[in-house]
Specification:
Blueprint (H helix, E strand, L loop, with lengths): L7 H13 L2 H8 L3 H14 L6 E4 L2 E4 L1 H24 L8 E7 L1 H18 L3 E7 L13 E4 L8 E16 H7 L14 E2 L5 H8 L11 E2 L3 H10 L4 E4 H4 L5 E4 L5 E11 L6 H20 L4
Parallel strand pairs: 3-4, 3-5, 7-8
Antiparallel strand pairs: 1-2, 5-11, 6-9, 6-10, 6-11
Length: 302
């Protein structure tokens, strides 16, 4: 393979076709013409020795095994390109430029925006890229600059600060309990509408390891989105588990079985050690540590 002829534009087109499943959708996503995308794929196939990258299927263009093998490398190129753009958005010693932050769904949607609003008000030259996902971003690959994680980082070359443990509890709205009655014991939960998961996740596994017996058939609402579970609980659909800090001060809710149904998730703020020299990254890192610590002590809105 001639590495000199391998273009980032070709790899970007490859990623777009892989994600969208068609040349036309990929072209719309990247703002180019369909023939341009087709030419990039053909050129990339030629550079890689002629192996077909996609085959036609009733659902669109299906990736071949060759594409699946290329994906980790293409994603790494994409992350590096994005990191270069963020690095160029502001000098290391300036409080301007972009910072990409990744966090779990609930933390990213319910907890971080007020913290970022405070930082942005004090430093209007900063721009935030917030990824709310339960998938773990690879900081070594520079998928993000800062990550808020619910497990201790295992990779080297990272700066990690443990904030503490986020408490989880079981809650229901008062009006739900007025309709259905308040369960007197855990066994009574079988007579109630419970909110839980559709497919088993690592979060479910961690709760089960802490002694909470969970299985899919026990839930009246099943969703793998932590935010959908929380909003369903907040809407009064049934009984569910959520972060105590989100509703502890909301008088519409009642906490159930506090002695038996209390769990915790350790929380870490992490970044790549190569970014310690960036003033804006360090500032946001420190503000996130401070804001999340305040959230753990006093709850949302503190």
């Amino acid at each position: 393979m001639d590495q000199a002829s391998l273009s980032w534009d070709h790899c970007r087109s490859l990623l777009s076709v892989y994600r969208t499943g068609s040349l036309s959708a990929a072209a719309r996503t990247l703002g180019v013409t369909q023939p341009t995308i087709a030419r990039h794929i053909e050129q990339l196939e030629s550079v890689l020795g002629g192996a077909a990258l996609f085959t036609r299927s009733p659902q669109g263009l299906a990736p071949t095994d060759a594409v699946e093998a290329l994906m980790p490398h293409a994603l790494s190129m994409e992350a590096s390109a994005a990191a270069m753009v963020r690095a160029a958005s502001g000098p290391d010693d300036a409080l301007t430029g972009a910072i990409r932050i990744t966090a779990s769904e609930v933390i990213g949607i319910e907890v971080l925006p007020p913290i970022l609003a405070t930082i942005g008000a004090e430093h209007p030259g900063l721009a935030f890229e917030l990824v709310a996902s339960n998938e773990t971003a690879d900081l070594l690959r520079r998928d993000a600059d800062i990550a808020v994680r619910m497990v201790q980082p295992s990779q080297g070359a990272l700066i990690a600060r443990k904030i503490g443990d986020i408490e989880l509890g079981m809650f229901a709205r008062r009006d739900y309990l007025e309709r259905r009655g308040t369960p007197a014991s855990l066994n009574d939960l079988s007579d109630h509408a419970l909110i839980g998961f559709d497919h088993e996740t690592t979060g479910v596994q961690s709760l089960r390891a802490k002694g909470l017996a969970l299985h899919r058939d026990m839930f009246s609402l099943r969703t793998d989105s932590d935010v959908a579970q929380f909003t369903s609980l907040r809407a009064g659909l049934g009984i569910g588990i959520c972060q105590v800090g989100l509703i502890a001060h909301d008088t519409r809710f009642v906490r159930l079985f506090q002695g038996d149904m209390t769990f915790s998730l350790e929380t870490w703020v992490t970044m790549h050690e190569d970014l310690r020299g960036s003033r804006r990254i360090r500032l946001v890192f420190d503000h996130l540590v401070e804001g999340l610590t305040r959230y753990m002590k006093h709850g949302a809105g503190a």
